[in-house]
Amino acid sequence: MNQARVRLYLLPSYQQEPVISDLVRKHRLTVNITGAQLGQPSNSSAWTDSDSSGWIDLELQGSNQQITNGLAFLASLHLKVVGKPNVMGDSWHY
């Protein structure tokens, strides 16, 4: 079992979509939401940092392939994913 800690920045158009559910269902990942900040979505559908409607901190658990596929899925949605550092001294990293 491998683990990754990431921050997912949401496009406004995805704020009401089941992105996290799809990670669990389609990619068989265990997902723990460790933090989030969601704002009001803007009318823009193009990605810029200023258009982000918020972020979600996730801890992902699964095989290397499952995590890789899950991250590729997020990239295919044009969502910004940033790895979080290993601040706890544990095995969580990306």
Cα shape: globular
How would a crystallographer describe the biggest sheet? 4 strands, antiparallel
- Which range best describes the helical content: under 10%, 10-25%, 25-40%, 40-55%, 55-70% or over 70%? 10-25%
Rg (C-alpha, Å): 13 Å
Major sheet strand order? 2-3-1-4
Number of separate helices: 2
Mean pLDDT: 81
* Contiguous runs where pLDDT drops below 50 for at least 5 residues: none
Distance between the termini: 14 Å
Give the total of beta strands.
Answer: 4
Order of helices and strands: EHEEHE
Strand fraction band?
A: 25-35%
- Helix/strand/pairing category: alpha+beta
Oligomer: single chain
Task: Explain how this protein is built.
The structure is a single chain. The protein is 23% helix and 33% strand. The chain has helices spanning 19-27, 64-76, and strands at residues 2-10, 30-38, 54-62, 80-83. A four-stranded antiparallel sheet has the order 2-3-1-4. The longest helix is centred in the last third of the chain and has 13 residues, at 64-76. The relative contact order is 0.34.
